[in-house]
Design a protein that fits this description.
alpha+beta; six-stranded antiparallel β-sheet; elongated
């Protein structure tokens, strides 16, 4: 019996011991999970190291006149590691001594919380040993530079625990200016335009660095191991900011006035094929307009502007001459069970081939083409192929869509395909193809490839320069070109555009176009017309070729090409003729010699690097700042001085370079409108005036 009791006592004791051990383990697990979990996770994170890529600075896109169209600026996310050894040494003496002043500075800089609220948040983070305390995200370079001067922060990363994560954002100073052409490089979004086409040049080569991860997955670079990234190249486009602005404004005015669905306008430099402007506007659901799609490189039935191709074929093959007679039948012609109508009821009968073109007669062109090529339609198609109307133009921008051209023998070719093609139906080409053809005629038969990239620069030095490229050296005979010039000029003197250019100070050559287009499954019942005008000026010595195409709303009251697209062309040509052509923009500019006295404004790091490189001695009177400084100098004395910047009052930008001015104004929350190139000469908000977030600032460069 005693033995049994002794055994039971030992069993109970063992059982109690096991229960106690289990409870202890369970309690410890709960304690670790609930009270020490964050600490041990932080310790785990801190043991992880890996090699990560360092993004290079993306190159800048410039206009040909030197204005910045798209650039990258830095943004910063700032965190605090409250478990940093230096921050917690000596019972956190650095933290406690600087807490009040730091809270005050943070409240004044970010203005999102009071001084007391910042103090409360910082104390809470310190007490919980938060190793991933998110202080601010997406702060500007200007704010970041000011933050580095604050109490505690200026002691360095180890003693303050402050960690920054830098990233770059893409900024277009002109907002949605030429958006579909320039494009944007946005995070988690597909690139478009030049940003996509020249992405490999712009993005550069990534570097590598060794990082250690702390709590929350935030990476901290490990010293002495880093391969520097190679920044992207800058590209200079053929675009001209003034011409683009004139083109967009003229197109917008007509789009709003006629409540059109969408439209585009293209300006090409006749002798070179450079695209100086490409505007695309589409109507949003709220009635406003924006660059929502690149209509300039999307095919559609061109209508009467295609008659230039028909006329070129007829004249080159000697099927007709300008005096050949054609019966317009009053503007109605029945053929193979279908009827061809002229857009206007003119009642004309027997006219010359030139008059039929000037009147934009569908009947006249259809009759001449049908009579000439009904038994050899491939001959006509071969001419269109020679004009490259059945292939891409080859412009250096991603997204150009192929034209649609039916050929004899295909399932889409029928008895009436040829006559309808003669006046721009049963065929689809892009507005850019139309511009390329008209430009070739203006250029005496030499067809140039349209292009947008002028040169590539690396740190300001040109490393690649693009030259004009001739696609077709001779489109047709000189005799045919001369006759086409006469026809196109006749349109603007005696034809459908005569009233538009009646009192013009210069001679224009061009062609109107009005095409009835289908509306999906509804067909043509909505009476949607596409208005167009294609031409060049001045006619006797062409400098620019311009094509305007506008798709009108259903049942629009005004839809003829001369009334819708024509005024847009004329407004553009008037401005360009006055600004460039008449003022003889091609004359040599007078060269001004720099004075020996100079003044510059910029980042101290950049300026001192230049001064040290060229070995210019200077006196540093701005030792209290590492930010923006004034550089004043002469042949005898050069000095740096601190440039005072306020978040509430407008600073002086005079003398600053464009990029520094853009970064500074962006940090102040200002919207910028730029004019000119070089350094800042004038600003619309005077120095010392109060400023508000979102306020517009006009900057004039010298």
């Amino acid at each position: 019996m005693e033995v049994k009791k002794d055994i039971l006592w030992r069993v109970y004791l063992s059982y109690i011991f096991i229960v106690v051990v289990c409870l202890t383990i369970f309690g410890k697990a709960v304690y670790i999970q609930q009270f020490q979990g964050h600490y041990w996770k932080s310790m785990s994170d801190s043991l992880h190291q890996k090699i990560e890529e360092v993004d290079p600075e993306r190159g800048t896109i410039y206009s040909e006149d030197g204005k910045m169209l798209s650039t990258s600026i830095p943004q910063f996310d700032v965190y605090i590691d409250f478990g940093a050894d230096g921050l917690r040494q000596k019972s956190g003496i650095h933290f406690r001594e600087n807490l009040d002043s730091l809270s005050y500075c943070l409240a004044n800089l970010f203005k999102d919380n009071s001084e007391g609220e910042y103090k409360r948040m910082l104390l809470h983070g310190y007490k919980t040993k938060d190793r991933h305390f998110e202080l601010q995200k997406n702060i500007s370079y200007r704010q970041y530079q000011e933050l580095k001067t604050f109490p505690l922060v200026r002691l360095g990363r180890n003693k303050s625990g402050f960690i920054e994560s830098v990233k770059t954002i893409r900024l277009n100073p002109y907002k949605l200016f030429a958006y579909r052409t320039i494009g944007l490089d946005r995070e988690n979004a597909q690139k478009i335009g030049l940003e996509q086409t020249y992405d490999t040049l712009l993005k550069g080569t990534s570097g590598k660095r060794l990082v250690r991860y702390i709590a929350g997955g935030v990476s901290v670079p490990v010293e002495d191991y880093q391969i520097e990234p190679e920044n992207g190249k800058d590209i200079v486009t053929t675009l001209d900011v003034f011409i683009q602005e004139v083109t967009e404004n003229a197109l917008m005015k007509m789009m709003v006035q006629n409540e059109a669905e969408h439209g585009c306008a293209i300006i090409m430099e006749t002798k070179t094929g450079k695209v100086k402007a490409m505007a695309n506007l589409g109507r949003r659901t709220d009635g406003t307009y924006a660059e929502d799609f690149n209509y300039a490189i999307s095919p559609s039935e061109p209508g009467s502007t295609f008659k230039l191709a028909t006329m070129l074929s007829l004249l080159e093959d000697k099927k007709v001459n300008l005096q050949s007679q054609v019966n317009l039948n009053g503007g109605v012609w029945e053929i193979n069970g279908q009827t061809v109508f002229d857009s206007e009821k003119h009642g004309r009968m027997l006219v010359s081939a030139k008059q039929a073109f000037e009147l934009s007669s569908n009947v006249g062109l259809a009759k001449m083409a049908y009579g000439a090529y009904v038994h050899s339609p491939s001959q006509f198609i071969n001419h269109l192929h020679g004009m490259r109307l059945d292939t891409l133009t080859g412009i250096d921008i991603t997204g150009e869509r192929s034209p649609i051209m039916h050929k004899p023998g295909s399932k889409y070719w029928n008895a009436n395909t040829l006559p309808w093609m003669a006046f721009g139906y049963n065929v689809e080409v892009t507005p850019l193809q139309t511009a390329t053809l008209y430009n070739a005629v203006a250029n005496n038969g030499k067809m140039m490839r349209p292009y947008l990239l002028s040169s590539v620069k690396d740190q300001g030095e040109v490393i690649d320069e693009r030259e004009p490229y001739i696609v077709v050296d001779k489109l047709c005979s000189d005799e045919t070109i001369k006759q086409l010039h006469e026809c196109l000029e006749g349109v603007c003197i005696e034809g459908t555009a005569a009233e538009l250019f009646k009192h013009s100070a210069y001679k224009v050559a061009g062609k109107t176009g009005t095409a009835l287009v289908a509306n999906g499954s509804k067909g043509y019942e909505d009476m949607i017309y596409q208005s167009s005008f294609a031409g060049y000026f001045p006619a006797e010595n062409p400098q620019y070729t311009c094509v305007v195409v506008i798709k009108n709303k259903p049942h629009a009251a005004i839809f003829y090409g001369a009334a819708v697209a024509g005024p847009v062309f004329k407004e553009i040509s008037d401005r360009l003729y006055t600004t460039y052509v008449r003022q003889n923009n091609y004359a040599t500019n007078t060269v001004k010699i720099d004075s020996s006295i100079f003044n510059y404004v910029g980042l101290k790091q950049d300026i001192t690097q230049v001064l040290n490189t060229v070995k210019i001695p200077y006196r540093d009177d701005g030792k209290n700042t590492e930010e923006i400084v004034n550089l004043d100098g002469s042949s005898f004395n050069t000095s740096l001085s601190e440039k005072m910047i306020s978040n509430t009052y407008m600073p002086s930008l005079k003398g600053m370079g464009l990029k520094d001015a853009v970064v500074l104004c962006e940090s102040l929350g200002l919207k910028i409108n730029l004019k000119g190139k070089g350094r800042v000469a004038n600003q619309s908000i005077a120095e010392g005036q109060s400023i508000a977030h979102g306020q517009l600032l006009n900057i004039e460069l010298n």
